[in-house]
Amino acid sequence: MPDTVTLEPPAAGERAVALSASAARRVAVLREKEGNPALRLRLTVSGGGCSGFQYGFAFDAAVNDGDHVFTRDGVDLLVDDVSLDLIAGAEVDFVEDLMGASFQIRNPNATSSCGCGNSFSL
To answer: What is the mean pLDDT of the chain?
Structure first.
């Protein structure tokens, strides 16, 4: 059974990941456009990118064994156990500015990241 946690931004190093209010609102809008209220945002970390690890986002209706579920304002964020080790204490935000709109991750474990923010190193 997956762990379900509702929380504000976690403390650095805490084995949790948080969604900002802005990210939760954006996921809710995207989920509505997809027409499937069961969709959750899945955040993964994989090897690659210009800094060694890269973030990945996808919608997923299934909660897998080993997934951790973090909830804010009715929106679920899924993170697998291996990815959680690399992003524990992070916050997922959605930012709109003159350069565009994107999900951004504030990862306290990253020692550096690429200019676009999609990859990081430890």
So the answer is: 84
